[in-house]
Amino acid sequence: MVQEHVRPSMAVGAGAAAIAAPAGPASGAEHATAATIDAEFQQILALAANPSPNLRSWVERAKGAAILTDLTEPQLAAILAPGEFHRYQPGDTVIKYGDTSDSMFALLAEGRVRIVAPIELPPPVGDWLSGEKSLIELPAPQVVGHFNLLASTTRSATVEALTELDAVEVQKAHLERICRVDLTVGYLLMRNMARSLQGQVRFLNADIKNLTVAVALAARALKK
Predict the structure, then answer these.
(1) Structural domains of the chain ordered from first start
(2) pTM (global) more than 0.85
(3) How confident is residue 69, by pLDDT bands cut at 50, 70 and 90?
(4) Per-residue b/e over 49-77, b at no fewer than 16 CB within 10 Å?
(5) I need a surface site. Which of 110, 112, 193, 201 has the fewest CB within 10 A?
C-alpha cells in the first residue's frame, strides 16, 4: 500500500499580487509573523500566476469537480498551488472516519472512491448489529472532505479509493486566506457547497421515505 506525496516548488515569479499589511498597531513579533505569512502567500500567488506543468495538470484534472464549478483556472491554481499531491492505490484510505483534520481533497480525474460510514447503534441492538454501510460511489474529478471547512469537527465517513487515484490535499487555513483575498472564490465555494448539501438532503429524504415504507410493510407482514 504505497502513497506518493509531492509538493510543488514555491519559486517566486512575476505576477504575484501584493498583500496589504494588517491594519492597527502590532508588536515587532506580530509584524514579523504577518510579514512572513504575506511573503509565503505572495509566493503562492506567484506560483499560481506562472503555474508549473504539474500545477497546470492539477487544475486541468480538477476543474470538473462540482465544488469547484465556475472558478477560473487562475483561481483554481491559487487554491491548489500549496497543496500536497497523493497517489492512492485501490483499498487505500483517503479520509478516515473520526479523523480530526480539516483539509479538503481534490480528487483528480480519473479514478473512483466510495464513501463508507460505520453502523453505530446503542445496546442491545448494537451488540448484534454492527459493521459499515457503503453510502455512495463517486467518480473523479470530485472534492471530498470539504464540509470540515464549514466547521472543524470529526470526519463523518471514510473515503476509500476503489481504483488508482490522484488527489491534492489543501489545508483549511490556506482556503480561508484565499477566500478573504478573493471574495469571488469564497462566494463560489460556499454556493457550491450549499448546492451539494441541498442534494444530500434530498437524497436523505428519499432514503428516509423508502425506509419508512419498508418498516411499514414489515410491520404489516408481522401482523398477519
Answers:
(1) 4-223 (2.60.120.10)
(2) no
(3) very high
(4) bebeeebeebbebbbebebbeebeeebbb
(5) 201
